[in-house]
Design brief:
There is one protein chain. The chain is of the alpha/beta class. Helix 6 packs across helix 7. It has 13 helices and 14 strands. The strands form three sheets. A ten-stranded mixed sheet has the order 9-6-5-4-3-2-1-10-11-12. It has helices at residues 48-61, 81-94, 113-122, 134-141, 145-157, 176-185, 225-242, 250-260, 306-310, 313-324, 328-331, 336-339, 362-384, and strands at residues 12-15, 66-71, 99-106, 125-129, 162-168, 190-195, 199-200, 217-218, 248-249, 276-279, 284-286, 297-300, 347-350, 356-359.
């Protein structure tokens, strides 16, 4: 039997300082329904006591010299600047020589001059949620495109580092070239795009289903596997022609990492997961941001420490199940090394052998990996030879 080795790996916890509260109601959002986790009329803002308890425990749980705090939502800018100043004060108090970084994911509509000065002075990395050009963005995120662009302009004016996180959905997946060129045009150098795959229960309640639950109904804005594959290929074709080494796309970086046999840096394409949890504003820890359901509740920091929960057997089993639960079709697949079954939240269909646990997006990923394979082979060869992967921009695969 393999023995678990505590403290053998870094851990990350995504913090929800305003709980699921948000000033927007994006149609595909999977998080606003988490308001049901709180008692009626209960406050959803993180208290100073919870903030201090978490900061102390989180820093105590780390063994690496660098520690990352990730602020998420809901919308984290619903808390005032003073809340984050207090957070930094507590980080300094408990850091004990460690270097601490902060990143914050926002919808961008509440960014002000004051926020930008704070982000710049304190070295925050800001993630901006934006789904592409005006029409594509506004389709599911309300008429907020202009507000988000004003936020980006303010960040640029103040020299704040930012990256973009976009969803790929049924409404914006048809134009991958236009999608990518838009982000290039606004000066985005770090881009993450995530497929929207959400299902509601068949009981008419509108309740979202967790990963692994079969059945349910896909929401109208969920991307199809075919759309996802075509989209990923289309964006890759734009990127690989001229922007390798200049624009960094998370999916492509992670794919190359798997090709080269090094950790991909993103849990969805890693062999196991469980290193990144989510903590609600009341101190309740869940196995993953996409598994904030009662079955995946690890405990509360008022009664159990972050170390106990994140290095405990339940979380270890959650992480290992990603590999252990792969169906036969995945285990026999030539792309298993690159995909690793992708995120467990999308594994709700049956494979070609009738076994449960196949990823819904599997056909799209297969199309993507087949398409990029010659380029990945080339870039890996360049890396192995001590040359730059960007040389792929002069490569033209045969056929």
């Amino acid at each position: 039997m393999q023995t678990l080795s505590p403290f053998s790996r870094p851990i990350y916890v995504m913090l929800k300082p305003a709980g699921p509260r948000c000033n927007l109601r994006c149609r595909y959002c999977y998080y606003t329904e988490k308001e049901a986790l709180y008692a009626p009329d209960a406050p959803t803002d993180m208290t100073d006591e919870t903030l201090e308890t978490f900061t102390r425990q989180y820093l105590e749980a780390q063994t690496a010299p660098e520690v990352l705090f990730t602020w998420h939502g809901g919308e984290p800018l619903l808390r005032p600047v003073s809340f984050y100043r207090r957070a930094l004060e507590l980080q300094r108090r408990y850091a004990r020589g460690r270097h601490v970084d902060n990143c914050l994911q926002t919808n961008g509509t509440l960014i002000t001059e004051e926020w930008c000065r704070f982000f710049r002075d304190e070295g925050f990395l800001i993630g901006i949620s934006i789904d592409g050009p005006r029409q594509a963005h506004n389709a599911l995120r309300g008429h907020t495109f202009d507000s988000v662009m004003r936020g980006i302009e303010l960040l640029d004016r103040h020299g704040v580092e930012w990256n973009a996180m976009a969803t790929v959905n049924a409404l914006n997946a048809a134009d991958p070239a236009g999608f990518y060129r838009f982000f290039r045009s606004i000066g985005c150098r770090f881009l993450q795009f995530t497929p929207v795959v959400e299902r509601t229960a068949d009981d008419g309640t509108g309740r979202l289903l967790s990963g692994g639950e079969e059945g349910g109904r896909l929401t109208p804005w969920s991307v199809t596997p075919e759309q996802w594959g075509d989209f990923a290929c289309g964006v890759f074709d734009e990127w690989v022609r001229a922007d390798v080494g200049e624009v960094f796309v998370q999916l492509f970086d992670a794919t190359l990492a798997n090709w080269a046999g090094v950790p991909p840096g993103v849990c969805s394409l890693a062999p196991v997961c469980g290193q990144a949890a989510a903590m609600e504003a009341d101190g309740t820890l869940y196995s993953c941001d996409h598994f904030v359901f009662p079955a995946y509740r690890l405990g509360n920091i008022r009664r159990e420490s972050v170390t106990q929960m994140m290095y405990g057997r339940r979380q270890a089993a959650f992480g290992q199940s990603k590999r252990a639960a792969l169906p036969r079709q995945c285990r026999e697949c030539r792309w298993l090394f690159a995909c690793n079954g992708e995120c467990p939240r999308n594994r709700f269909v049956r494979d070609s052998h009738g076994l449960p646990g196949l990823n819904y997006l599997c056909p799209g990923y297969r199309r993507y990996f087949e398409h990029v394979a010659p380029y990945m082979d080339y870039m890996k060869a360049e890396l192995d030879a001590g040359r730059a992967p960007a040389n792929v921009m002069g490569f033209h695969p045969a056929g």
